[in-house]
Design a protein that fits this description.
The protein has about 220 residues and is mostly helical. It has one domain. Helix content is about 60%, strand content about 0%. The chain is elongated, with a radius of gyration of 29 Å.
Length: about 220
């Protein structure tokens, strides 16, 4: 009887270790970081107008946007914008006359905006930012104009325009998520108009340059 009990114990012990080893062998291993790849797309299936008046290749920007890599797309947009405008975004002159950038080719600024709008499904792009900004600006402009009329305050249209633009800056930044010291959000969940962000929004003269870009884009689309 004792012998039989010992045999049963031995068999049970062997079976236990066999089962443990089997389970350990079936435990999935963590993926190797080097094997992780970003999403891929068949770019031959993408049908986009990548026109450029100055020989710029927009395929990398399109790729970044198509795979939803908005951080890389934002960096690429900064680089492309400097190429098409001949402006160093880090060294912009505060002189209003030097901030104007009428030389941006219509073809190129429209291509950049079109790609952002398409691959963000209408959430991002210069034209999206313009619509948000213009609603704020026009409301403030009309309020100031009505106040001056009612209170018999004389002011030129240029003065009204400058005042309305300056006051709309902070409201615009708050709505699209560019609050002071806040980090950019490179996700589709970011506020509408949050990207692209190519101007340093802490400086007013960068803001006015951005407004000039909006106006240039709108004139190109007429």
């Amino acid at each position: 009887m004792m012998t039989l009990i010992l045999i049963v114990i031995v068999i049970a012990t062997i079976a236990y270790f066999v089962l443990v080893n089997k389970n350990e062998n079936q435990t999935p291993s963590l993926p190797n970081r080097n094997e992780i790849r970003s999403p891929t797309i068949d770019e031959s299936q993408l049908n986009d107008d990548l026109s450029s008046a100055v020989g710029i290749d927009y395929r990398n920007l399109r790729h970044c946007l198509a795979v939803k890599d908005f951080e890389s797309a934002n960096k690429e947009t900064k680089s492309l914008f400097e190429k098409i405008s001949s402006i160093d975004l880090k060294l912009m002159d505060p002189d209003p006359q030097k901030r104007k950038i009428p030389r941006i080719p219509c073809t190129d600024i429209c291509t950049i905006d079109r790609l952002w709008v398409k691959y963000s499904e209408g959430r991002f792009g210069f034209s999206v930012q313009f619509m948000i900004w213009s609603d704020i600006y026009l409301r403030l402009y009309n309020e100031k104009k009505e106040f001056n009329r009612r209170e018999k305050i004389e002011s030129s249209d240029d003065e009204l325009n400058f005042s309305a633009q300056l006051d709309s800056m902070r409201k615009f930044y708050d709505i699209i998520g560019w609050e002071k010291d806040s980090r950019l959000i490179y996700q589709e969940s970011a506020p509408e108009g949050h990207l692209p962000h190519i101007f340093w929004h802490s400086h007013p003269f960068h803001y006015f340059t951005m407004v000039n870009v909006f106006e240039r884009l709108m004139s190109c689309r007429k």
